[in-house]
Specification:
Chain lengths: 112, 116
């Protein structure tokens, strides 16, 4: 079956630190990959996505590259801000299906 | 630009009562979903729907009922609420495209349900 594994949180960083949140997946075929972000008290919203191998998704300074050889889609940001504090979800949507699979989420806490 | 809305945002009820959570989207998306979010479990899919009058069970459907008589609405009913159904419930929708690369999910703001 399909699955997404994310690093356990919380991840605690100081402002301007480098961020990596690891995500690996198992899926048949060629899934689309997503990162969603959930700010406190809100629903999830799309942060970035990639639809084929070697694609790089980017938004708001965050980046992730679709690595088929390592089945990974790690999220990175060069310099985090306090406003980036949120829960980040990695997800996949299998080819031919409209039902996504989500990871369990990784909480990010950024201190001033 | 209403997008996707949920009501109520907060609900407190008692064990055994019937509760209905509403979800409405203005994009005419074909697909709609209900999730619950609990600490330690992440998001779990309760029910989903591919179109009006087409619904199917997700990972945790027991104790819940859905209907979809209109494309834009997807209510979730707890027939007899239990304390284990205390959770935050999210509705989501996605587009009709058959192209695998475009189906982003759009989430509502959530309903926080407490069952006493």
């Amino acid at each position: 079956g399909n699955s997404v594994t994310q690093m356990e949180g919380p991840v605690t960083l100081s402002e301007e630190a480098f961020l990596t949140i690891n995500c690996t997946y198992t899926a048949t075929g060629y899934p689309s990959l997503f990162w969603y972000v959930q700010y406190p008290g809100e629903g999830l919203q799309l942060l970035l996505k990639a639809t084929k191998a070697d694609d790089k998704g980017s938004n708001k300074g965050f980046e992730a590259t679709y690595r088929k050889e390592t089945t990974s889609f790690h999220l990175e940001k060069g310099s985090v801000q306090v406003s980036d504090s949120a829960v980040y979800f990695c997800a996949l949507r299998p080819g031919g299906s409209y039902i996504p699979t989500f990871g369990r989420g990784t909480s990010l806490i950024v201190h001033p | 630009d209403a997008g996707i809305t949920q009501s109520p945002r907060y609900k407190i009820t008692e064990t055994g009562r019937q509760v209905t959570l509403m979800c409405h989207q203005t994009w005419s998306h074909s697909y709609m979903f209900w999730y619950r979010q609990d600490l330690g479990h992440g998001l779990r899919l309760i029910y989903y729907s591919a179109a009006a009058d087409i619904t199917d069970k997700g990972e945790v459907p027991d104790g819940y009922v859905v209907s979809r008589s209109k494309t834009e609405n997807f209510p979730l009913t707890l027939e007899s609420a239990t304390r284990s159904q205390t959770s935050v419930y999210f509705c989501a929708s996605s587009g009709t495209s058959s192209r695998r690369e475009t189906d982003t999910q759009y989430f509502g703001p959530g309903t926080r349900l407490t069952v006493l």
